[in-house]
Design goal:
This protein is mostly helical. The chain has 14 helices and no strands.
Amino acid sequence: MEGDEVAIFLMALAAALFVAPFTLGWLVHRLYIKGNAAAGVPILVVFVSLAWMAFVLRYYADPSVQGIYILFYLLIGLAIVVGPGFWVPAIYGLRISVDVFQRKNLAVALVLGAFVLSTGMIYGGSLWGEADAEGDGEGGWWIPLGFFLMGWLLMILMSVIYIRSEPNSLRIRLVQDRSLSEARAAAGFLIGVAVVLTDGVAGSFEGWLKGLLGMGTITLMMIVHEIFRISVPVILTTVETKTQGWLESRRWESFVYMGIALIFWAGQLMLKAGGR
């Protein structure tokens, strides 16, 4: 490892060791963990994210990524997931310490976990493929980070559009009303978009058709969201959230998002198979 890589390695290690105990709830009182289903979500999504990164690094990363470099990229991914992955939702008002651990809010945990998992998916996708598929170059750590930032910032933009297009405050419906239907819909949208963006940042450029298919898929998800949100009334209360059946019907929205994402993934596999 060279000088800049050692510096990045040490910074990622320090960030992960410092932040992980707080975001994963290792320092909270056990009373906040006992009987709290929401508390298991952060740990689960971080574990799945790391497993995805390890899978990509083991089988599909640049051949030069061996030995200590596997740990190098895993540490960077861990620092990103337990850091910005949790901080960005906190800016919106979805707080892991208060909402997930203290208030045991499963709705917040689902959306927060979906954002963290999406972050890990996109970072793992940025590690996919050779750094220089046409030559013998090995690239550098800044190449996957650059692709990750492009995909991740686009996911944040899509999240902002989703939130802004809701008829009323999604944060209130998650934090105060604890609406699981709204949480499933938002989580399904995040993961669905992440599937598309993960494929977008993975590998080398394969033509404009792939990019157009990805943008078309995300646009379709936004159209689906517009269709489902029409039935959401302007005024919501905790009582309405728990009693009216139309709100619970939004759980189907998340299945539509995931179905679109799976169709997109299958379509991409067919395009790659056809190009061989």
